[in-house]
Amino acid sequence: MLKKTLLLTTLLGSTLFANSVTFNHAPKNPKHRLPSSQNEILSFNSILNESIDAVVNISTRTINYKGDLNRQFFKEFFGNQMPPQKSENSLGSGVIISKDGYIVTNNHVIDGADEISVTINHRDREYIAKVIGRDQGSDLAVIKIEAKDLKAITFSHKKDIKLGDVVFAIGNPFGVGQTVTQGIISALNKYGVGINQYENFIQTDASINPGNSGGALIDSRGALIGINSAILSPSGGNNGIGFTIPIDMVKNIVTKLVRDGKVERGFMGVNISKVTKELKALYEHKEGAIVTNVQHGSPAEKAQLQRGDLIYAINNKAVTNPHDLQQIVVSFRPHETITLSIEREGQEIKKELKLANMHGDTLATSAIDKDFDGLYLNELNDNNRKQFGIPSHIIGVVVEKVTHNSQAYIDGFSVGDIIIQIENQDIQTLEDTEKALNLYKGKAKRIYINRGGEILLVVKD
Q: Is 93 a catalytic residue?
């Protein structure tokens, strides 16, 4: 199994005024081409010289205190003159985003540090940095040093980043000093890697090693396209699979950290499922996210969203899958109002929804594709509630047995699953189940299941 090794990387270029940030952007719509002359050496020396001074080396120090006395105690009583203790040092990278000293890096680079120092290329001085804000969910952080007239990096644009583009990773691998490695963009929009809570990575084969985390991934113009964050490697060294936080996410998170010192994410209060092959026959829109459950008291309930609603756009921005929906929603701040484009029972409708505050990842993306054969159902009673640990407020019919090697068994139906709804029919009894199945006999129908509190969507022909 591949070992996930977090690294250090950085990006961004900007000017900050009164808790706001303005990014220096490269020109849009660049040309993508190969050298055209036979007497031409392909060199990026001038481009790299422009970008390399915007990437810094970061060193952190963590002090281990003896006994039960904690770090805060020493800081309160001794300030910066704390008694000498055993310390641990680590190295990483960062990217200058403003002339007056704002720097973006990975959260894991500075996490738990008692002291953060920054070294800038071609400058002998070491700067002590303070933390402006950190976001564990995206693994980004902003720090600041007291300096002027720094070289801030230039930002690329999301739409200008293409598969196969030549890229360069700049950072401080293994503490050897400023280093540049070259590769291509191997993949875009990578998620489900299991590194961060909110993932939408650029994958690259540019050599990224420990110490590169928080450093810059730039294109062949020298414009920042992402912050290097992690690698997948069995040994902990580069294995050609590196992950970079993309520029659009970096700008969004950095802006919030500079403005508020933290990141607050919008929250809808729905469980969602992808549009499977079987579900496409039920909807005019073939992409989006299907609502499988609406949480009680949530913004989604107030906006009168229903199970089976297909959300295919937010503020006219296309939603192609559940991951898209999650990324779009959490990019908004709490209390902002968004407009949902929904398909419901063949009709297109618009819903305005005022977001609440996200305190965790509540957007589930579970979807299953199964038949209904091989199941033994029963109404809920005191015995099976106790047997399967089903709370008293849950209503529906419970799966008490799944026939071995039946289609339901093969597809993964589980004992203890609770059928709560078939199409728009609420299910409380076996009679409700039979009526609903007969009502939609011969048609594809959506069956909603409660499995341990998670709402799953099943399609039955």
A: no
